[in-house]
Amino acid sequence: MVRIYTRTGDDGTTGLIGGDRVYKDSRRIDTYGTVDELNSVLGVVLSIGVPKPVRQVLSRVQDDLFTIGAALATPAREDPQKRNIPAIRDSDIRVLETEIDRCEEELPPLRQFILPGGTEAAALLHLARTIARRAERGCVALSRSDWVDPQILGYLNRLSDLCFVLARYVNHANGATESHPTFGR
What we know:
With 185 residues, the chain is mainly α. The chain contains five helices and two strands; from the N terminus they run ββααααα.
C-alpha cells in the first residue's frame, strides 16, 4: 500500500519534479497551486452538468492544466520535456480560440459589462475565469525571476477569455438572463 502522506512537508517545504525542495510559500508553488485550484473548479463545473460541447472542451482544458502544473513544478533549469512533460503548443491555444469563436457565433453580441452569475455552472465558470487571471498573474510574476514557457502565459490568457464566453454560452443555453452593473444607479 502506498500512503498519501509522507511527512516530508512537515517542515514547510515541498518537492519539485526532479527532487529539489522549496518552501511551500514560494512563488513557483503558489503559481502551480493556483493552476491546480483552477483545474479543481473546472472539475466542479463538469460535475454539475454542462452542454456536451462545453464538457468536451473543459475535459481537454483539464488535461492541459495538469500539463501546465507539471511544467511549473519543474525547476526552471530543467527541461520539462526531458521528464516526459509535454509542452503547451500554439495549437493548444488555437483550440481555445476556435472554441471561443464557435460559442460567440451562438451568443448575442456583448454590448455592455455583465455581472458574474446566472446558472450555477455559469457562475462557477466566472469564478474559473478569475482564477485563470490569477494564475496568469502568478506566471508573469514568476517569469520575472525564473523562466516560464511563454506559451503557458498565452494559454492562461486565452483560457480566461474562454471561461467568460463559456459562462455566457451556458447561461444562454439555459435561458438565463445576463445581469448588468448599474454603476451605483
